[in-house]
Amino acid sequence: QQNVQQSPESLIVPEGARTSLNCTFSDSASQYFWWYRQHSGKAPKALMSIFSNGEKEEGRFTIHLNKASLHFSLHIRDSQPSDSALYLCAVSMGNYAQGLTFGLGTRVSVFP
Amino acid sequence: EAAVTQSPRSKVAVTGGKVTLSCHQTNNHDYMYWYRQDTGHGLRLIHYSYVADSTEKGDIPDGYKASRPSQENFSLILELASLSQTAVYFCASSQGADERLFFGHGTKLSVL
Fold first, then answer.
1. End-to-end distance of chain B based on CA atoms, in angstroms?
2. Best to test chain B binding among A100, A102, A107 (most B CBs inside 10 Å)
């Protein structure tokens, strides 16, 4: 069964800094890699995804994927207080039979 | 934005009682999911469905049943609620198995 681990568990960063979050997975056949963000008391919301090795940038957010290392990461440039949330990584095998497997999350706090 | 609504928003149930959580989506999505979120366990998949009148077991189906009477509606049923089922339950829908999930606002269930 897929095992998804996130690090660190929590992070405190100053406004304007770069935030880096890590996610490792166990099944090398994994196909799709997601980051979700969940503000306190709210529903998780998809941020972005990647399915091929390399880097993908959307605004202040960048995903890096290295399938051989079973690792992907999320980097937030110019972190804002509104980025304070629980960040969840998720992995999909690419078919309905598996669904999405989520990590436990990294709690990010950005202070002004 | 895709809409997924859950009812009730919160519920207090007694041990051994029956609980039904409802989910309705107006996205015209084929896939629907039920997840539970606990501190320290992240989001875990209970049941999912990819077509009306059919449901599939997720990673933690024990103690739960699901029903998908139509494309729009997906229910989660706890026949005999237990203390260990106290959690926040999220319903989600997606257009495909590799597409982003759209979550409802969640149902906070407390079993006493």
1. 36
2. A100
